[in-house]
Amino acid sequence: MEIAQSLQQVKSSYIREILAAASDKNVISLAGGLPDEKTFPIDLMKPTLENLANMPEVFQYGSTAGYTPLLDFLNDYFQLPETHTAMITTGSQQGLDLIARAYVNPGDKVVMEAPSYLGAMQVFGLVQANIVTVSQTEFGPNLDELEQCFETEKPKMFYAVPDFHNPTGVCWSLETRQKVAELCIQYNVAFIEDAPYRELRFSGEALPLVSDFCPQNSILLRSFSKIASPGLRIGVVTGKTSYLEPLIKIKQGADLHSSVPMQALLHGLLKHDNFETHINTICELYKSRYDVMYAELEQRLPKSCVLKPVNGGMFVWVEIPECDTFELAKTLLTNGVAVVPSPVFYPEGSEVKAALRLNFTNATPDELRVAVKRLADVLHML
């Protein structure tokens, strides 16, 4: 049986392939965006886990929009406006998929920064969107390019990760956030804000969400994979009710609802008195690992490489001299370190800068030191 044309155009995830290769015990992986398993708040979840046996109602079919006690909690926790609502998804990735299926017709234009999140490119590729890119600066998207793009291309939506961008780690400035919101309102472009790393800030002051400045023109995706556990597969989408109603309709046909026991477990975790302390502990751990990696990169990388600091998230982006980055990644793999080369973060046909995405959250300080040395030794041979 022939597969659908939309799927034929979507490449398999290089990251998943390299993660499989990186499972070799002799390879130190800086490739995936994996949280450290030691950070999973299992102790905080134990009371709810043990009590699930006394909650038979959560093992029944549930509401497509989500487990009501969790939705009520999140409505207060996020202080949603009266015009807005929340829906629970099986990871924020499903939320992105639902948005694409609900709103994007083949050929519709979707704006993304280049480079951008691979998973988003795959989702928009499956609905045959026309992905239009703008370049990125250290403060966020190039605003002149973005306005020109909105004016000439008339896109339906702009997708972005403003807090600790995947893959570059860039955090948008306050001025950029305000200007992007202003442009989205002016040109009637929906802003799709993906915020999976927002809580992982380990320096600097937290900034308002972009969607705070354009609440009637935006949909916000949040994830609990990085601050609770990826295995829970729980995300939440918020936005004005009229924006979310089509998503709920599609989700009903896709999976009826996300796992209710997992939603109840997350609800218990979020209500726990020590949950905020847990997040602070994660941030402190990741900062310590980032500091080790950054110091090693600064000391060991060739001067031809460009390295910029980040204030949170999970990734460091290293620009390198022009080369075949896929071949470089393969060479690095044979030398015992896994990385992700930059082309996978650009749509087909885009101008690609040679760079590597490095993850610092799932390796020990000693492993990070060894991995950076292996990386630098190969780069010095370019």
TrEMBL record:
Q: Which taxonomic lineage does the organism of this UniProt entry have?
A: Bacteria, Pseudomonadati, Pseudomonadota, Gammaproteobacteria, Vibrionales
> Where does the Aminotransferase class I/classII large domain lie?
27-375
Q: According to the UniProt entry, what is the EC number of this protein?
A: 2.6.1.57
Q: Which UniProt keywords apply?
A: Aminotransferase, Pyridoxal phosphate, Transferase
GO molecular function, one example? pyridoxal phosphate binding
Known cofactor(s): pyridoxal 5'-phosphate
First-level EC class: transferase
BP GO terms, sorted: alpha-amino acid metabolic process
**Any Pfam family:** Aminotran_1_2
What name appears for this protein in its UniProt entry?
Aromatic-amino-acid aminotransferase
Recorded hits in CDD domains, A to Z, give: AAT_like
InterPro entries, sorted: Aminotransferase_I/II_large (IPR004839), Class-I_PLP-dep_aminotransf (IPR050859), PyrdxlP-dep_Trfase (IPR015424), PyrdxlP-dep_Trfase_major (IPR015421), PyrdxlP-dep_Trfase_small (IPR015422)
